[in-house]
Specification:
By secondary structure, this protein is mainly beta. The protein has one domain: Sandwich (Jelly Rolls), CATH 2.60.120. The protein has two helices and 20 strands. It has helices spanning about 30-40, 70-85; strands at about 10-15, 20-25, 45, 45-50, 50-55, 60-65, 95, 100-105, 110, 120, 130-135, 135-145, 145-150, 150-155, 175, 180-185, 190-195, 210, 215-225, 225-230. Strands 1, 2, 3, 6, 8, 12, 13, 17 and 19 form a nine-stranded antiparallel β-sheet that branches. Strand 15 (about 175) and strand 16 form a beta hairpin. The chain is globular. The mean pLDDT is about 95.
Length: about 230
């Protein structure tokens, strides 16, 4: 697999908190390779609670870790790192292990945030340097969108920007009836948002949910850039 130049376009949906919609973040060849890399590894998703990862009815999807040394994974992570610009310090920060997530009919992920309430201790084998770390930002990229439902909902993010439309003219995001914005899954496209304030505390406005898939299948990729602290 060879990394090829891959143009994408961006739309700033919200400045504060910063939420950016990225159109064509993934190439179709990358999607195929990413799915192949994770297909055999899917298992029930877990969440971090009370100091460890555990199963919960709040998150009923399946997840699969994918190796960062996979060539296609490397291409996508390099693109994410370039997108981040100066947000990460390459001498101390890194991007955490990427994860695929899959939702089938009825599966969901209730309201949650990607950042940790307190920075996590650095473990052996991490690429970053520092005693602790947190997820400074998130990318959520769609690989498969063969579904109805399955929107990603940000209850506390609003916008004055008109929604982009897909090839069939359908809106990609909408005002949710309970507040905030809901983004429809579109294969190849991604959402990016910043999780932490400048002082390192988590931004509650980035709380979001994976709304239930009504029919079909949704597969996505989580990419979590990590800020390390001395």
């Amino acid at each position: 697999f060879t990394c090829l130049p891959h143009p994408y376009t961006t739309e700033i949906v919200s400045i504060d908190p910063l939420v950016i919609y990225i159109e064509s973040f993934l190439a179709s060849t990358e999607i195929k390779a990413l799915l192949e890399a994770g297909e055999s590894a899917f298992a029930p998703s877990r969440v971090y609670k009370s100091g460890h990862n555990q199963g919960t009815q709040d998150r009923t999807s399946s997840s699969a870790g994918i190796p960062r040394d996979n060539p296609a994974v490397g291409c996508v992570l390099a693109r994410a790192e370039a997108f981040l610009g100066t947000m990460l310090d390459p001498s101390r920060d890194d991007i955490g292990p990427p994860q695929l997530v899959r939702y089938t009919a009825g599966q969901r992920f209730n309201r949650h945030h990607d950042w940790y309430d307190r920075p996590q201790p650095t473990r052996r084998g991490m690429l970053g340097r520092g005693k602790s770390w947190n997820r400074i930002a998130s990318f959520f990229a769609i690989l498969e969108d063969k579904c109805t439902g399955g929107e990603t909902w940000f209850p506390f993010v609003n916008t004055t920007v008109l929604s982009k439309t897909d090839e069939e003219g359908r809106q990609i995001w909408r005002n949710h009836e309970d507040g905030g914005l809901a983004f429809r899954p579109v294969a190849g496209n991604a959402l990016f948002w910043v999780n932490l304030f400048q002082n390192g505390t988590g931004d509650q406005r980035t709380i979001h949910a994976g709304l239930p898939v009504t029919e079909g299948l949704k597969t996505a990729m989580n990419i979590w850039p990590r800020k390390f602290y001395a």
